[in-house]
Amino acid sequence: MSLAIEESTRGDIVILTLGGKLTFRESDDAFDRIRALGAAGHSKVVLDLRHVSYVDSTGLGAIVGGYTSLTKQGGALKLVNPNMRTLEMLAMTQLNTLFEVFERVEDAVESFATRARSSSSTSSG
């Protein structure tokens, strides 16, 4: 099964909804899409994983690569609804300390606004 990637936007935030498996065969597609978004100036990305049935280490590497690419540009990559196995992989690799993980897309989107408000109040204080 190939990886399906649907793109939508909410303001300046891009939501990528993935479906299928994120493995060594499909990981380049996900990484290239995230990197292209960053190159186009879209540095706030939500990765909705609720329809992803399986992520292997290469797929996880693609997510980390996307995160690194966006954070170098001052952006962020947030994860939504990864399955239990993916959560366990994040914990085993201690990547759960790197990624913000949410149950709902709306919460991930709102977290960008919360982060912006707290950053501006910190810098003006």
What characteristics describe this protein?
125 residues; alpha/beta; 45% helix; five-stranded mixed sheet; 4 helices; 5 strands; Transcription Regulator spoIIAA; globular
Structural category is alpha/beta
Shape: globular
The tally of domains stands at 1
Distance between the termini: 51 Å
Q: Strand percentage, roughly?
A: 25-35%
CATH superfamily placement: STAS domain
Count up the helices. Answer: 4
Radius of gyration over alpha carbons? 14 Å
| Strand elements, count | 5
**Helix and strand run:** EEHEHEHEH
Described by strand count, sense and barrel closure, the largest sheet is: 5 strands, mixed
CATH class: Alpha Beta
Notes on the structure:
- This protein has a single domain, classed as Transcription Regulator spoIIAA, CATH 3.30.750.24.
- Helix content is 45%, strand content 29%.
- It contains 4 helices and 5 strands, in the order ββαβαβαβα.
- A 5-stranded mixed β-sheet has the order 1-2-3-4-5, sandwiched between helices.
- The chain is globular.
Structure, briefly:
The protein is of the alpha/beta class and 125 residues long. It has helices spanning 27-39, 57-71, 84-92, 105-123; strands at 4-10, 13-22, 44-55, 76-80, 101-102. Strand 3 (44-55), helix 2 (57-71) and strand 4 (76-80) form a beta-alpha-beta unit.
